């Protein structure tokens, strides 16, 4: 997993004079190439390989398959998809790909930074 | 890194109200507003096969876009839409 601390330093987003760190953007970038399951706010679950992510946490998945194809045959002819960040409810990740300690530390540091 | 929609041509758009619109992507912007040409809606029903409603040239506002899927021509042409029975997708609930 990439060094999140370093990522945060480089990815501070200066918008309207406020500094927004892109912690989760960095986090997802470190997961590109891994298989994830994205559960959407319309209850559809899509499994696929994380191709790319952007600052809005829009997600592009390749080689997708719907978790329940019988109930959701709508996406049968779709192999790659782009998911708008605002409609994601959960992103299910492989546990061994995530260093939860590092993520927790980084999030705490960011929260501290935000306060100041 | 940006997930641009540039490579997408023939797509299936799932909207926030649970509809599915198939069309050709002519243009898009940062907020995911889309211009879809030759579009038609695929209406799924549990009682009858998929109904395709021709729409024409559409602009879809980015707020209403949930998923954009790239349609694989071969798989799509082998689909027997008349035999697919499914409940319509749920709408996005924030």
Automatic annotation (TrEMBL), chain A:
Any Pfam family hit: LSM
Keyword list, A-Z: mRNA processing, mRNA splicing, Nucleus, Ribonucleoprotein, RNA-binding, Spliceosome
Assigned GO CC terms: catalytic step 2 spliceosome; Lsm1-7-Pat1 complex; P-body; precatalytic spliceosome; U4/U6 x U5 tri-snRNP complex; U6 snRNP
UniProt cross-references to InterPro entries, sorted A to Z: LSM_dom_sf (IPR010920), Sm (IPR047575), Sm_dom_euk/arc (IPR001163), U6_snRNA_Lsm2 (IPR016654)
Protein origin, superkingdom: Eukaryota
Residues annotated as domain Sm: 23-97
Compartment list: Nucleus
Subunit and partners: Component of the precatalytic spliceosome (spliceosome B complex). Component of the U4/U6-U5 tri-snRNP complex, a building block of the precatalytic spliceosome (spliceosome B complex). The U4/U6-U5 tri-snRNP complex is composed of the U4, U6 and U5 snRNAs and at least PRPF3, PRPF4, PRPF6, PRPF8, PRPF31, SNRNP200, TXNL4A, SNRNP40, SNRPB, SNRPD1, SNRPD2, SNRPD3, SNRPE, SNRPF, SNRPG, DDX23, CD2BP2, PPIH, SNU13, EFTUD2, SART1 and USP39, plus LSM2, LSM3, LSM4, LSM5, LSM6, LSM7 and LSM8.
Function in brief: Binds specifically to the 3'-terminal U-tract of U6 snRNA. Plays a role in pre-mRNA splicing as component of the U4/U6-U5 tri-snRNP complex that is involved in spliceosome assembly, and as component of the precatalytic spliceosome (spliceosome B complex). The heptameric LSM2-8 complex binds specifically to the 3'-terminal U-tract of U6 snRNA.
Protein name: U6 snRNA-associated Sm-like protein LSm2
Upper lineage: Eukaryota, Metazoa, Chordata, Craniata, Vertebrata
Automatic annotation (TrEMBL), chain B:
Quaternary context: LSm subunits form a heteromer with a doughnut shape. Component of the precatalytic spliceosome (spliceosome B complex). Component of the U4/U6-U5 tri-snRNP complex, a building block of the precatalytic spliceosome (spliceosome B complex). The U4/U6-U5 tri-snRNP complex is composed of the U4, U6 and U5 snRNAs and at least PRPF3, PRPF4, PRPF6, PRPF8, PRPF31, SNRNP200, TXNL4A, SNRNP40, SNRPB, SNRPD1, SNRPD2, SNRPD3, SNRPE, SNRPF, SNRPG, DDX23, CD2BP2, PPIH, SNU13, EFTUD2, SART1 and USP39, plus LSM2, LSM3, LSM4, LSM5, LSM6, LSM7 and LSM8.
Domain Sm: 1-74
Biological process according to GO: mRNA splicing, via spliceosome
Gene3D superfamilies per record: 2.30.30.100
Subcellular location: Nucleus
PANTHER family noted in UniProt: LSM1 (PTHR15588), U6 SNRNA-ASSOCIATED SM-LIKE PROTEIN LSM8 (PTHR15588:SF9)
Acetylation listed as a keyword: yes
Alphabetical list of SMART domains matching this protein: Sm
GO cellular component terms attached to this protein's record: precatalytic spliceosome; U4/U6 x U5 tri-snRNP complex; U6 snRNP
InterPro entries, A to Z: Lsm8, LSM_dom_sf, PTHR15588, Sm, Sm_dom_euk/arc
GO terms, molecular function: mRNA binding
Name of the protein in question: U6 snRNA-associated Sm-like protein LSm8
Gene name of this polypeptide: LSM8
């Amino acid at each position: 997993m990439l060094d999140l601390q370093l990522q945060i330093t480089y990815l501070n987003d200066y918008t309207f004079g406020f500094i927004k760190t892109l912690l989760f953007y960095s986090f997802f970038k470190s997961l590109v190439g891994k298989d994830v399951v994205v559960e959407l706010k319309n209850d559809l679950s899509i499994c696929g390989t994380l191709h790319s992510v952007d600052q809005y946490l829009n997600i592009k998945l390749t080689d997708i398959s719907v978790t329940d194809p019988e109930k959701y045959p709508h996406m049968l002819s779709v192999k790659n998809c782009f998911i708008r960040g605002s409609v994601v409810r959960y992103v299910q990740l492989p546990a061994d790909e995530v260093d939860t300690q590092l993520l927790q530390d980084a999030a705490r540091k960011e929260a501290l930074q935000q306060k100041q | 890194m940006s997930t641009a929609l540039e490579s997408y041509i023939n797509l299936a758009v799932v909207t926030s109200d649970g509809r599915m619109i198939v069309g050709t992507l002519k243009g898009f912007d940062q907020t995911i507003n889309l211009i879809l040409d030759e579009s038609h809606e695929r209406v799924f029903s549990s009682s009858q096969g998929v109904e395709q409603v021709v729409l024409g040239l559409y602009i879809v506002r980015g707020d209403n876009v949930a998923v954009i899927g790239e349609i694989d021509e071969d798989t799509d042409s082998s689909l027997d839409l008349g035999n697919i029975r499914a409940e319509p997708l749920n709408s996005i609930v924030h």
